[in-house]
Design goal:
2 copies of one chain form a homodimer.
Chain A: E1 7-13, H1 21-33, E2 39-45, H2 49-53, E3 57-59, H3 65-71, H4 93-105, E4 108-115, H5 117-132, E5 138-143, H6 159-180, E6 187-192, H7 199-204, E7 216-219, H8 227-241, E8 244-249, H9 277-289, E9 293-297, H10 300-304, H11 311-329, E10 335-343, E11 348-355, H12 380-386, E12 398-399, E13 402-403
Parallel strand pairs in A: 1-2, 1-4, 4-5, 6-8, 6-9, 7-8
Antiparallel strand pairs in A: 2-3, 10-11, 12-13
Amino acid sequence: MPKPKPRNAFYAQSGGVTAVINASAAGVIQTARRYRTRIGKVYAGRNGIIGALTEDLIDTSKESARAITQLRYTPAGAFGSCRYKLKGLEESRAQYERLLEVFRAHDIGYFFYNGGNDSADTCLKVAQIAEKMDYPLQAVHVPKTVDNDLAVTDNCPGFGSVAKYVATSMREAAFDVASMAKTSTKVFVLEVMGRNAGWITAAVGMADSADTPIPIVLLFPEVPFDEAKFTALVDAKVKEWGYCCVGVSEGLRGADGKLMAEAGTKDAFGHAQLGGIGPQIAGLVKERLGYKYHWAVADYLQRAARHLASKTDVLQSYAVGKAAVEMALAGGNAVMPAITRVSDRPYRWKITEASLTKVANVEKKLPRDFITRDGYGITAKARAYLGPLMVGEDPPPFKDGLPRYERLKNVAVAKKLDTPFEV
Amino acid sequence: MPKPKPRNAFYAQSGGVTAVINASAAGVIQTARRYRTRIGKVYAGRNGIIGALTEDLIDTSKESARAITQLRYTPAGAFGSCRYKLKGLEESRAQYERLLEVFRAHDIGYFFYNGGNDSADTCLKVAQIAEKMDYPLQAVHVPKTVDNDLAVTDNCPGFGSVAKYVATSMREAAFDVASMAKTSTKVFVLEVMGRNAGWITAAVGMADSADTPIPIVLLFPEVPFDEAKFTALVDAKVKEWGYCCVGVSEGLRGADGKLMAEAGTKDAFGHAQLGGIGPQIAGLVKERLGYKYHWAVADYLQRAARHLASKTDVLQSYAVGKAAVEMALAGGNAVMPAITRVSDRPYRWKITEASLTKVANVEKKLPRDFITRDGYGITAKARAYLGPLMVGEDPPPFKDGLPRYERLKNVAVAKKLDTPFEV
């Protein structure tokens, strides 16, 4: 029997990027390069799945080994990402068929899709339609999301670094406001990401620890905002400590269930574009309690802060990229490498295979027992979960005082179809 | 002739704190400890100069050598700071006399005041009134301000670290927005500190370098805002690069000279409390150009970010603390250790003695030739100045994934006067 010819792989980054998604890209590319008899070239989608739909593929074989290694230290999406959601198989039939047309033209036998809930769903549907159309394909999802809301996996690559960033930032700001509180700022408000799940908000609470106690009030998206209870709590903390820190989720909701910071615009997924609850909460403190405040909105800074990435997160991000290739080579299809926690102390983890049917479109919220009974803090259980994800430093190389991040050549693959496709 | 008895020193932190002001404190305390025959104890003011006025002194001799060494790695004011301005000698006579009363009661022979323009003025006035009242005192100002607006000194301790933070943050956010720009965010706005002088705004421009080009538009407090020119420039950058980054000073002013983000509240110095121009500028971009935006306001995060401090800044902060003690021992009075630049490449600097009469109440603005002719960027001259200040990393120790910062015992000195004083 003749040996099968190696087939090419297609890798794409989806949705909001992270400080470590490129570590997953490095894991995919470096691992594929070790299996040259099985995998030909790794093509990447320019600007995510749109690159596949428009046949705008990047040939990663044109990048040096050094450049791919440097990806491990580079934040954001090296090939570009996109917010472009493929819907149901019927509704988006033209897109799915076009994907397979492009895959066939470039002999793509492996599809690695690096994203969150939405892209897990897309990955699953691509696997289904390929099977239905008798197109041989191994479709593997590579988990990524700062929101930490994917099912099955214990945690999501990208989250540990945001957790480390927001906890460090809150601790630093707390030292600042504590210094100033006698005559000036008494309340500091930090707004963080996390649309529907309070994982990042919970991480802010890690700034407070047994050896560095800090008064922190957390406003989770899971806990409807109660103005009277909140202001009373802040007032009590200021009276006891002289100052108070507040961590608030961009997705804070009122008792009516409505987002308190609705900016009025929506992203391509139909989600509301948020931002601005931090200053609102600060203004409320001033109005109700009269305390001088400062507020910060970290926004992209929190998810792009590769300079402060968690080493655990970097290692896991790389590991899921590597495992995705190995799973595909082992015949895995419509699956995702999940991180499984073996133990908290010492922290041990391993990669296991999860079926995408259990991951797609499921949103894992912060468990109620991670939030203290009063609704404004984190429990010991939350601390045991969050702690290990933030451990370890893995600084990028610095040049002239600034992190030196990699920019790839991103050489285009010659088009074989060259037929237009509107996205 | 009998040897003179050692006299005590008083050290206080003033105004907004920085990531490295405690390195100056460590410089003062460690150096004083090496001259025990000349300097008795170093007392610190609890919450700055207010601690002296209310006779609330901290005995730093109760702190271990290890704790003082750790101060070098700890952001914010370890003894507390305050915003409390002493006015003219006539207007604030009661305060100045009270200061000397407390100094006399505790045999303070050395006064080290760690702050910006306002505290340089206070330090000078304390020297003057001590002389007038025949109280023997060496009053030395220790420079500190993230605003980098002190005269005589080439740069101010605290600034280099903020510069490194804002440039790193903008570079990281730029990589993020570049990844997303195809279908989502095209304009990212970062609001930074710097009330009247655009030094920090200029530092944002360092995110863009020859080997990492980034389209950045800067809005300096020195350049009146011109909506039409600004939006046209952002539009051109988006059309050329696919995205655009904007760094805006909290102190941006309109053509009428008025602050564009006047929050309506004022601090104890009578300065307006700012914040909020970032979202305003982002909203304007959306309204005029229709581009999707994100914005961040770093606020205290930028000046407290010890995890990303500039090593040059840490070394200089320590050096001015050490030099202040040495100057005082050499008989210096009403002076300040200034940083003098010897050369740009290689960067070399030394400490020189500056008269406080040349420093007090003078505000050093960003030179016009540091700003490009169009008013939206920085020149090669600015780069040559800013570059060396950001160089080098000096990370704090980490524990459990977070920086471990020092909290001192801050043991109170027994009161000798115990007379009330209202501040």
